[in-house]
Each structure stands twice: as C-alpha cells, then as structure tokens.
Amino acid sequence: MKLIKWLVFVVVALGVSLFAYLTLFFNINDFKPQIVEQVKEQTGRDLAINQDLSWSFFPSFGINIGEVTFSNPQGFDPVNMLEIKQAVANVALIPLFSQQVEIEQLSLDGLKLNLVTNKQGVTSFSGLDSTSDKATQSDPTTEDTSHSASLSSLNIAGIEITNLQINVIDEQANSNQTFNLTSFTLDSFSLGEFSNIAYEFDAQLPDMKVSSSGEGKIKVSNELNIIELIDLDIENLAEGDSLPNKAIKSSLTLGANAVLDTKDVKIAIKDLKVDSIEALAMLDVNYANTIPIIKVMVEFGDIDLDTLLPKNEQQTDSEQASSSPEPTTEPDLSALKQIDLSVDLKAKSIKVNNLLTQNWQMNATVRNGIVNLEQLKADLYEGNILVTAKLDGRNKTPSYQFAKTLTGVQIRPLLTDLAEVDLISGNANLKINGSGKSLIPSKLKQQLLAKGNFEVADGSLYGVNIPQMIRSAEKKLQGDLSATDDSELKTDFTSLTGHFDISKGVVSNPDLSMASPLIRLDGKGTANIISEAIDYQLITKVVGSLAGQGGESGDLSGVDIPLKISGTFKEPKYGIDTDALMQGQLKKQTDEAKDKVKDSLFKKLGL
Q1: Strands, DSSP E only, in 26-94?
Q2: How big is the CA angle at 53 (ends 185 and 136), to the nearest 5 degrees?
C-alpha cells in the first residue's frame, strides 16, 4: 500500500511540477513573434495572432486559440486569405497514458477562407507550395519505418463547427461564389458505435442560390479502417431565375460504407426525388489505382425533362440561336483519359422536347479516353430503338461512330414531336451506320459519313395528293383550265422503301420506291441536312382507278408522270412536269394509233 501511495504522490508531483513550469516559467505567447516571423520568412505572408493563446491542464489538456488571420498575396482583395474567430480543443489527460483518447471539446467558429484569382491568373495559393515540395522529397534508399497508430479507444464528447465561409473570387471571369457551412455537429462519439451528425450548408453562385441540410448516423470501426454512414436524410433547394418555376427541390436518403484498407467506397441512394422525378442509385468507387474505378447504377421512374429545362418564352428560336453563337473550337476531352466509369441506367420513361421514350436501358463506359455506348434500348412510339456508339476523345479532333436501328415505329407522331414535321405516317423500320470527326456543330453535319435503308408500310404522305394532282393535270391537258379538286392533301401507300448515303451534309437516296393500289412511284433525290432543302425527281405510273382517293378515274394509265419534290423539310413543294406529261401522253396516243393501224392491216390481210 505504501508503494502505491508513493507512486500516486510521484505522478501528482510531476503533474504539479509540469503545470507550474508551463504556467510560471513557460509562456506559449512568448513564441508568438517567432511563429509570425517564421511564417513571414517561409511564405512571404503575414500571420496575425490577435489574442493570447491559453492552456488547460486538468482534468483535460487543451488549447484555446482566439482570433487568427493569414494574409493573401500583396495587392489582393480581400487582404486576408484565412480568418479564424475561435478554436478550442480539449483532451482528457489521464486516459492518454493508456492510449485512450477522450476529446471533451472540439469546436471551431468563424473560419473564413478567401480564395482569389486575380486578373493576371495569380491565385491565393501562389508561393505556398515552393517549400512544401522540398519537404516532401525523401531519399529513395531510406526505409519507411512508419507504422499506423493504435488506440485502445476514442471518445468525443462532441464536435461543433459554426459559421465556416469559403469565398471563391475569380477576377478573370468576374465571378464571385460563396459557400457557407452554417453548422456541423457530431454528438457523443465512440469507436464501433453509431453517432448522430447534422449539417446546414448554403452557397451563393453567380446565377442561383443553393441550400442543403441533413442529419444521419456515422460509425468508425475500432480498427479505424471502416467508416459507415446510414440514414442520412438530405433536403436541397436551388433557387434562380433560370430554373423552372425559379426553384428546384430535391431530397434523398443516403447510406455509405468506406473501407480504407482496400480504398473502396460504396454509396446507396434511395428515395431520391427531384421535383416529380424519383430514382434509386448505387455508386461504387475504388481509388486504389491512379485512376479511380467508378461504377454507377441508376433506376428512374418517369422523367419529364421538359418541366426541368429552363425556358425563355420571350425569345424566338432564331433569337436564341443568335444569342448563343456556335462554338468554333473542338471541346477539350482530355479529361476522359483520367476517368474509368461504368454506367447502367434504367428508366420507366423519359420525355424531352416532347419526344417520349419508355423502358430505357442504357449501358455505357468511359475508359482510356473513349466513351463507349454499349447499348441503348427503349420503346419508341409503338416500336423500339437500339443504338450503339463510340466517341474517341484521345486526339485533338474527336471521332465517333454509331449504329442505330428503329423497328416498328409509328413515324408520324415521332417526326411531329421531334421536329414538328408532319410529312409522313406509317410503320417504319430504319437502319443506319455512321462515323465522322469533329464535334463542332457545323463540321458535325459536314463530315458525317453514313449509310442506311428504310421501309415504311401502310402509311401516307401528307401535304400532297398525287392522284389528285394527276387528275387535275389530265383535265388541264383536255382543255379544262378551271379544273379544281378539294380532296384531302394526302397520298396513301402500302410501302415506301429506299437506301441512302450521307456525305458532306447531303442525304442521297438513289432508289426511292413507293407502291399503292393506285400508283407506283420510283425515282431518286437528295435532302440537305444543313439547309433542309429537298430535291427529288420521281416518275409516277397509274396502275389502278384514281377514284380510290376521291375523284373520277382518268385515262393516264401506263403513262410516265414526272413528279418533282422541292422546298424544305417543313414546307415541301410538289409539282408535275406538264410538258413531259404531255409528251408522254402523246407518245401513248401515238403508240395506241399505231397499234390500231396494225390491227386493221392484219385484219384486211386475213392475219
């Protein structure tokens, strides 16, 4: 018992001696001028410690730091890069002797960070990394004898961070962004047990304000190698004039697991809501390699992007085009080389610019500078679409290739919703394979090379009634110049087929063929996808009664009727070459007269 008393006496005596020395003979504030001088010498910046530093010893060991500032480079505004109003850290002293850390108080208030880029491109960090580079260099022959620290326990009474502000000022871009962490709190924390966390955050961006708040639970394993986050409920709000209804609300519940040994992070997002959009998501990140490996899986419900995309009803399409000039340089895709990403996406439906698709399935990867759309499948207007594509961003001028198949698609509502073009209806099949270079819009159309074929069954051409045109032309040939026909401007057909090539912005179709019970149409033509001009030369033949589309039958059966299509995609123009038609009809009548003479001659000869 006497030995124990003497040991306790020695420990207490040493503690009292240490306390007396640090308080009576050692004043930490005596070193403030030396600290300030060393910072000035190493960085060229001014460090100001405006209040006395204070110690605490028993029952906790800690330090209280008052107002501290650290300056930006000379001539910068604001003057200070870093400002701290107050920081307090207290650790229980006795448990430290048994490798037990008990933090009784850890708080930080009023930290402000001003990060500036001036008009010359100099930043707040300029000059701070010149000495750190030397410090990080080491002799390659020196053995690494470091080992990870070991704790028997870690207990934190609480952590509180308040009024943290980061200002990002770019004088070159004339932009100012402010990020505020109003509060971050961590309740009583121990290794191996879940603790409550909460935060409030907001940011002022050039064109909108964003705010976020959340609360959940966090756990750190006893071995300090696993961090787990569960039931983190987050609420977000974005406000700005460019947003739909000037505001977008979102919410989600997040769970995460980080294994530090294998450098693997898994994040599960459930109950994600962005206005009317709902989704689930999984994110898996492994950062053991130089380029992190990222896998994303997302499953959406119904997505109506038209309700989320910014709208400006005051501008016409031409005004909007003129207000946003076309880029003249290739986009920089070099960042794709630093990405290893796999994406699996599903969606019940997606609507954008009135175009509706359903049952989306998309698989894509980004790896080694190449974006590979392995598969995109969706239901589209009673049919389906299948697309594969590849974008190579490794060179200065990107290149691409793609293949697209449409099967059983109702073409009229598709074209109406996609391009506001009411030109054709029917059940359409389409195959196209293409490639090209450049992502500049004008060059994209010019340098696209593609081949394909199409087939449309049981449909109609809108804006033209070819049988009506033939009837009118026939009556005029017979001398009835006042002949009119108010039949519907529509031409029915049973099939419309052809092949096409795309080169230098022009679609060439050498074998257009249309069949119906009334007429046959064959020919060729071009469509300019840059100017949207159409130029087709076609030959029509009557094979049935023209009364089938609202009129009396004529007598042009068997005559080649030349038909020309011009105009644009949205306003096509149709016309019959009456001169060629007259010549054709005259040839037919001449041939018929010759046949009658032959028949009469043969009869007289008894043949």
Answers
A1: 47-49, 54-56, 60-65, 68-71, 80-84, 86-92
A2: 75
| Residue 49, beta-bridge partner list | 68
CA neighbor of 491 nearest in space, from 457, 516, 527, 509: 516
**Amino acid 35: pLDDT:** 78
In this predicted model, what pLDDT tens digit does every residue of 527-553 receive, in sequence order? 998 898 999 998 888 776 555 444 444
What are the distances in angstroms from CA 359 to CA 344, 386, 430, 450, 463? Answer: 13, 12, 20, 28, 33
CA distance 23 to 34: 19
Mean pLDDT of the chain, nearest integer: 80
Q: Report which listed range, 237-251, 284-298, 310-324, is most confident.
A: 284-298
Is the separation of the CB atoms in 536 and 553 below 8 Å? no
Please name the residues in contact with 96: beta carbons below 8 A apart, sequence gap of 6 or more: 61
Specify the amino acid at residue 528: N
Mean pLDDT over residues 85-112, rounded? 69
- The per-residue pLDDT for 607 is 55
Among 350, 345, 402, residue whose Cα is nearest residue 380: 350
Q: What angle do CA 290, 295, 300 make, to 5 degrees?
A: 150
Token code pair at residue 214: 């959340």
- Angle among Cα 467, 472, 475 to the nearest 5 degrees reads 125
Look at residues 542, 492, 539, 546 and name the one whose alpha carbon lies nearest to residue 513. 539
Whether a cis peptide bond, with omega within 30° of 0, leads into 510 is no
Angle between helices 466-477 and 578-604 (to 10 degrees): 70
Total H helices, total E strands in the chain = 8, 32
H or E, element range at 5: helix 2-20
Give residue 596's identity as a one-letter amino acid code. Answer: K
Ranked by mean pLDDT, which of 34-43, 141-150, 198-207 comes out on top?
A: 198-207
452: nearest Cα among 501, 394, 393? 501
Token representation of residue 265? 């992070």
Three-state SS string across 99-159, please? CEEEEEEEEEECCEEEEEECCCCCECCCCCCHHHHHHHCCCCCCCCCCCCCCCCEEEECCE
CA 440: distance to chain centroid? 18
Longest dimension (CA), the chain: 157
Alpha carbon distances (Å) from 123 to 80, 158, 173: 13, 35, 13
Helix-strand-coil split of the chain, %, nearest 5: 20, 50, 30
In the structure, what pLDDT confidence band is assigned to residue 596 with cuts at 50, 70 and 90? low
Range scoring the smallest mean pLDDT among 291-305, 497-511, 589-603: 589-603
Examine the pLDDT at 403 and tell me if it is beyond 70. Answer: yes
Contact 115, 96 (CB under 8 A): no
| Cα–Cα distance list, 518 to 469, 524, 557 (Å) | 13, 20, 10
Window from 31-45, 368-382, 465-479 with minimum mean pLDDT: 465-479
Peptide bond into 59 cis (omega under 30): yes
311 pLDDT more than 80:
no
542 CB-near residues (< 8 Å, 6+ apart)? 467, 470, 518, 519, 554, 556, 557, 558, 559, 561
Residue 539 CA to residue 580 CA, distance in Å, equals 11
pLDDT over 80 (residue 67): yes
